[in-house]
TrEMBL record, chain A:
InterPro entries: 4Fe4S_Fe-S-bd, 4Fe4S_Fe_S_CS, FDH_Electron_Transfer_Unit, TAT_signal. GO terms for molecular function: 4 iron, 4 sulfur cluster binding; metal ion binding. It is found in: Cell envelope. SUPFAM superfamilies: 4Fe-4S ferredoxins. Residues 38-68, 136-165 form the 4Fe-4S ferredoxin-type domain. Keywords: 4Fe-4S, Iron, Iron-sulfur, Membrane, Metal-binding, Repeat, Transmembrane, Transmembrane helix. NCBIfam families: PRK10882.1. GO terms for cellular component: cell envelope. This is 4Fe-4S ferredoxin-type domain-containing protein. Gene3D superfamilies: 3.30.70.20. Pfam families: Fer4_11 (PF13247).
From TrEMBL, chain B:
This is Ni/Fe-hydrogenase cytochrome b subunit. The chain crosses the membrane at residues 12-33, 53-79, 91-108, 128-148, 186-212, 224-248, 260-278, 298-317, 329-349, 361-385. It comes from Desulfosarcina ovata subsp. ovata. InterPro entries: FDH_cytochrome_b556_subunit (IPR051817), NrfD-like (IPR005614). Keywords: Cell membrane, Membrane, Transmembrane, Transmembrane helix. It is found in: Cell membrane. The keyword Cell membrane applies. The keyword Transmembrane helix applies. The lineage of its organism: Bacteria, Pseudomonadati, Thermodesulfobacteriota, Desulfobacteria, Desulfobacterales.
Length: 307, 401
């Protein structure tokens, strides 16, 4: 028999022993989230769907003019997603709730990048073009990007959009958290600054989370008891308060585990210090050396055994 | 490495090759359109569906189906079963072309093709894709190096460049002689390195989707996805050799290599069985069998993948009669090859369902043309190389000079 099962198991056993002997205990996964980032709280019970935030975002980021004017509220008849020309959109949802004049009460939902504490997009990006900044913003550096779109595959909120119609220099487009304005000019994000009803509160993440809890406690009838983004995917810098269950507003239920955790744990326990490739190389080298002198003997040209 | 390979003497422009040329031209047209109008111009990719046919077939399946290269190298060179050397060269050529086309496919798929080198400069060690890219890049170079002796064997002492290039004859021959002297001494490093790099990126390719637990259907999303990708790549290695050797020998009317292929696939029973056990075991442990009879497109795709891509060919291979029959063996191996292809497509395309946008995706004509064109080009070059370089085993009756 050429390669028989015994040989196979010998090799497998050797592999197992070598791997077991050299495997270091995988270090527990560590979150790399900044400890006190800034964030925004969106209070959906206050939002009136005026689309001023969309307009401000378009202006401060120098985005292309929209197809229909921002004052045109018929846009709300159809649900939209942020795309490569729009970092943020407002959608309207109607629920069973009725006001004192028997009108259905709409809920408006502003969508943009959540600036996750442990962003899947940044963990996935092959070149580190997306990175979590110390102030909490998830920043995109176009000069590194190769356009692989793995960030889009990874994002649990399906946020990053792509300039699919640019043949040579397309970009990944998503809310920047107005990084320059906030960090160097000391201003508010464009959308938070303009909101006429203070539906968007900007501040330290810890402060606005406390503020969110305070609002729920002071007004339990108005809010459901859940701050979306407090725990989802390990926490996000943008958080939401609502009077209607989030599932009815297009928010997906997400685990509390940060998205990158499993992949990073597996990759790191397998490849930290390249221990496993080195062990494998050594083992294969050993096997090759051991079978070398056999190679000169005639029996190695024997066929593969019974058929 | 003394086995008798020789360039195949056959007419090059057969009707089949003409068909390949037509498909190549169509694919070329689609690629030109992509670089004029952008990815969005030729594809159905969207924000919700950033990866489609190109990643599923050109990249993920291309990498998996090139696994014959490292599995035969392991068999013939590392554990010294020289008996199988007859299939090492064709497998090596398939791997070399396969990976070359992975890179070409990527050049079409990534938005900034000219920036494809940037991962070498900007490292992101948390990114699984970074690890895959690095391994693939190194492995591609290893494959070219492993293939070099075949070129040397053909041209050493016979360099005869046309016209004014003739002045280069002596230097080129000198280089070939140098390679001939040095390569055999260092080749073992590259052979082992090739196996190591393959194990690394074959498994990591499965880790790619671990970052999207809410998007990949639970039938495929499992922490052992990397292990499943590795074992299935190893298991498909020899069937792929059977598949392409049978195709090549049939179309060129050469001897079939049954006396090598039959014992080769005996090993596959064990490897494919291992993969099957892992896959079914994982389904039982995680309780995902509850989805099996959902009747959705996704669960049906899973059933097709498991039944026709793994269970049926495995049962077929168990029978010695099938293993000895050229037709039976070819059918079983084709099922395994297609099964792995379907698995990669399922993980990257069918099983990927963005929960918020729920975008339906079906590849556009443009995407299909690019993929078909690339595969046709691969087959065309394969045929070109085997008619000019000693890759396939020399027909039996001829005696080696
Ligand atoms: S929402 Fe998506 S794009 Fe924004 S930081 Fe999180 S993972 Fe990244
Ligand atoms: S598309 Fe750009 S930003 Fe996104 S993962 Fe790829 S390189 Fe990174
Ligand atoms: S933070 Fe800035 S970029 Fe983001 S939605 Fe608001 S205005 Fe737009």
């Amino acid at each position: 028999m050429g390669i028989n099962r015994r040989d196979f198991f010998k090799i497998l056993t050797a592999a197992g022993t070598a791997a077991a002997g050299s495997a270091r205990p995988a270090r527990a996964w560590q979150s790399r989230a900044p400890s006190d980032p800034v964030g925004c709280l969106v209070d959906l019970t206050r939002c009136i769907g005026c689309r001023k935030c969309e307009e401000a975002c378009n202006r401060v980021n120098g985005l292309p003019a929209p197809d229909r004017r921002f004052e045109d509220l018929t846009v709300l008849d159809r649900n939209r997603r942020p795309d490569e020309r729009t970092y943020t959109v407002v959608n309207r949802y109607t629920s069973e709730m009725i006001d004192e004049r028997d009108q259905l009460i709409p809920t408006f939902v502003k969508l943009q990048c959540m600036h996750c504490q442990d962003p899947a997009c940044a963990s996935a990006c092959i070149v580190g073009a997306l990175s979590k900044k110390e102030n909490g913003a998830v920043h995109y550096d176009v000069s590194k990007c190769i356009g692989c779109r793995y960030c889009m595959v990874a994002c649990p909120f399906e946020i990053p959009a792509y300039e699919y119609h640019d043949p040579i220099t397309p970009r990944v487009m998503k809310c920047t958290f107005c990084y320059e304005r906030v960090q160097t000019e000391n201003k508010l994000p464009g959308c938070a600054e303009i909101c006429p009803v203070e539906a968007i509160t900007f501040g330290r993440r810890s402060d606005i989370l406390a503020e969110a809890k305070r609002r729920i406690k002071n007004n339990p009838g108005r809010y459901i008891d859940h701050v979306y983004g407090e725990k989802e995917v390990g926490g996000t810098s943008w958080m939401y308060l609502s009077g209607v269950p989030f599932e009815k507003l297009g928010f997906n239920s997400l685990p509390e585990t940060p998205m990158p955790r499993l992949a990073e744990t597996i990759q790191h326990s397998l490849f930290s210090y390249l221990w496993s490739p080195i062990v494998l190389f050594g083992m294969l080298g050993g096997v090759m050396w051991a079978s070398k002198d056999k190679g000169d003997r005639a029996d190695n040209h024997k066929d593969g055994g019974d058929r | 490495m003394s086995h008798q390979a020789a360039p195949v003497k056959a007419k090059f422009w057969t009707p089949g090759v003409v068909v390949l040329a037509v498909l190549m031209a169509a694919g070329g047209g689609a690629i030109i359109a992509r670089f004029i109008g952008g990815i969005g111009y030729v594809s159905n990719l969207t924000t919700a569906r950033p990866w489609g046919l190109w990643i599923g077939v050109d990249v993920a399946s291309g990498v998996a189906l090139a696994a014959g290269g490292f599995t035969t190298a392991f068999l013939a060179h590392i554990i010294g079963r020289h008996y199988y050397e007859a299939v090492v060269r064709p497998a090596l050529l398939t791997a070399m072309l396969g990976y070359t086309f992975v890179v070409l496919g990527l050049l079409v798929d990534i938005g900034r093709s000219w920036a494809i080198w940037k991962p070498m400069l900007y490292w992101n060690p948390t990114s699984v894709l970074f690890e895959v890219a690095m391994c693939v890049m190194f492995y591609l170079n290893v494959l070219y190096l492993e293939f070099l002796p075949i070129v040397v064997e053909r041209f050493k002492g016979r360099v005869n460049l046309p016209g004014p290039l003739a002045a280069l004859n002596a230097p080129v021959d000198g280089l070939l002689r140098l390679a001939d002297a040095v390569l055999p001494k260092i080749m073992w490093v590259f052979i082992i390195l090739g196996v190591v790099l393959s194990c690394m990126h074959q498994s990591s390719l499965g880790s790619l989707m671990l970052i999207a637990p809410t998007k990949l259907h639970p039938l495929w999303y499992t922490p052992i996805l990397p292990l499943l990708f590795l074992t299935s790549a190893i298991a498909v290695g020899y069937p792929m050799v059977v598949f392409e050797t049978t195709l090549a020998t049939t179309s060129l009317k050469l001897d079939s290599e049954m006396k090598v292929l039959t014992p080769l696939t005996r090993i596959t029973i064990f490897l494919l069985g291992l993969y099957l056990a892992l896959k079914v075991g994982d389904m039982v442990v995680r309780g995902t069998y509850v989805y099996l009879l959902d009747g959705t497109a996704q669960t049906n795709a899973f059933l097709v993948e498991l039944i026709f891509g793994v269970i049926v060919p495995w049962l077929m291979l168990l029978s010695p009669a099938v293993r000895r029959s050229r037709r039976g063996l070819f059918i079983a191996c084709t099922l395994i090859v297609v099964g792995v292809l379907v698995n990669r497509l399922n993980v990257f395309v069918v099983g990927y369902r963005p929960p918020i946008s729920e975008a339906n995706y079906f590849p556009s004509i443009g995407e299909i043309l690019v993929t078909v064109g690339l595969i046709a080009t691969l087959m065309f070059i394969y045929r070109f190389i085997i008619t000019h370089l000693p890759v396939l085993a020399r027909p039996e009756q001829e005696v080696r000079p």
